[in-house]
Amino acid sequence: MTYQVSTSSQQDFVMIQITDTHLLEYPHLEFVGMQPEQSFHAVIDLMRQQHPQIDLIVHTGDLAQTPTPVTYNRYIQHMQSLEIPFFHTPGNHDDVAHFPFHEVDQTQLTVIELGKWVIILLNSAQPQRIDGRITESQLKQLHTLLSKLHDRYVILACHHHPFAMQSAWIDQHKLKNASDLLETVKPFSNIKAIVCGHVHQDAIHQWQGIEFLSTPSTCIQFKPKSEKFALDEEHPGYRYICLKANGELETQVYRLKTSERMSSSEVLGYD
C-alpha cells in the first residue's frame, strides 16, 4: 500500500529515524537499572525541541522488548499524540502476531510518498531468529517498484544491517541475504540511502552512490568494533535526515546529553 504524506515537489522534507526502543509491557518497568520508556520519551522530546517542523518519523524495528498488545498499543498512542505521520517495520525482538503492521497482508511492502521522495519499508525480521532476511517475494516487489520509480528519489528502510560493522558478535546477526538486496538495487541510480537499526550505533557506509546509515538506539548503545558483546558509553539518540527537493540528503545524529547506564549483556539476549 502507498501512503501519501505530501504531494509538494518543490520543498525539502525532514525525516526522523528512531530505532530499537525495546519497550517493556509497562512504563515503570526496568531492565538492568534502566527504563526504556523514559529514555524513549526523552529522545522524542529532544527531537521535537531540535526540529519544529517534522514531516515523517520512521522506526526501524525492535519497538518492543516485551512484544505484547499492551506494549504496542501504548507505543501507538504516544506516537499518535505527536500528530506527525509515523511508520515502522519489525525487528528481531518484535512479535509478528501482535506487531502493528501497516498492511493487512504482511508480505506487502509499505510505500510512503513525500514529494519527490519515496520511502520503502522492508521487513527483514525472521521468526525466532536474531539475524535477518528479506524474502524473495519482497525483493521481487521491490524490483517492480523501483522500475516504476525512475523519476523519484528513494530511501529503503529495514531493521537488520546489510553491511559489516566490524563487530564479530553483531555481524553474525546481520542481514543474511544482503547480497540479494544489493543485486536488486544495483541497476537503480536513484536510490539515495538504506537506513537500518539493530546495531545500536551510528555508522555511515557508501556503496555505488548509496549511503548506508545505521542509527543509535533510544535506549542502550553497543560498543563499535567489539569482538564480543559490549555496551558503549554513548547516549541514546535519533537520526535527522533532510530530504532535499534536488535529490540530495543531509543527515546528522542527535543524542541526549545525559542518560542512564546499563552494565549487563543479559538484556537483549545476544550472549
From TrEMBL:
The keyword Zinc-finger does not apply. CDD domains: MPP_GpdQ. Residues 16-201 form the Calcineurin-like phosphoesterase domain. It comes from Acinetobacter haemolyticus CIP 64.3 = MTCC 9819. One of its GO terms (molecular function) is cyclic-nucleotide phosphodiesterase activity. NCBIfam families: PRK11148.1. It comes from the Bacteria. This is Calcineurin-like phosphoesterase domain-containing protein.
